[in-house]
omega-amidase (Daphnia magna), 280 residues
Amino acid sequence: MSIAKFKLALLQIAVGASKTENLLRASRFIKEAADKGAHLVTLPECFNSPYGTGYFAEYAEQLETGESCLALSAAAKENKIYLVGGSIPEKKDGKLYNTSTVWGPDGGLLAVHRKVHLFDIDIPGKIKFQESEILSPGNEFTSFQMGDVCKVGIGICYDMRFAELAQIYARNGCKLLLYPGAFNMTTGPAHWELLQRGRALDNQVYVATASPARSESSSYVAWGHSSVVSPWGEVIATTDEKESIVYADIDLDHLQQIRSQIPVTHQRRSDMYEVIQKKN
Ligand SMILES: O=C(O)CCC(=O)C(=O)O
């Protein structure tokens, strides 16, 4: 019989200029979450490096040999957990990516997600950010199977704005969508929670986001507020801007009940409209 409930932990850690310290901090928080019974643990976007186009090249690593992936693999194995390694700047074949790695309880690499939608926005007087000046986009959907428990879909931050990605993950059987992210002081209060609730309710899935803790002295000030939203669209666990761990029980029976009570999946009018998946 498969397990219908498991504990998810989101690590809202502070990220500074020292990669070594960031990795040590991540390992310490991972252990704490595992000791508290978390089965799946998620780090924030860009957890090993300050977030900003000026930092990515300097902090970037190759996945196979980089110290961040070695640390993540070891932490997953030591704590016997599934671990979503937030994201790190990755270098590969002369290009840079914003990349999330997923590790199994044996320390093996289960999945790699390269941010598909790069964060390029310009809100005059508020925030301008152009990831595409430095980064290349990934071109693949990424999900992984957590043993016989649950299929999980991965997006990174700006990816959450694209409803189609979430819809395709849900259609492919994902019951939890994880978005390591770092919204900011303009779009955070306006859209962070709303997007999570929208993705969760539309697709009747759990949605979780993991942000770095806020540092007012960083060049990019993160919103924080890592959260978990249920398939009912309700925020079931959240926090403020400070360093913390957010825990939530993911209850797949509850998800199933909601799906049978409000059966939108079967009521779609695919004779009238359709979202098409063009790649794997
Ligand atoms: O979509 C937003 O408002 C923020 C996105 C972001 O910070 C990111 O993709 O890293």
Observations:
- Residues 5-267 form a domain with the Nitrilase/N-carbamoyl-D-aminoacid amidohydrolase fold (CATH 3.60.110.10).
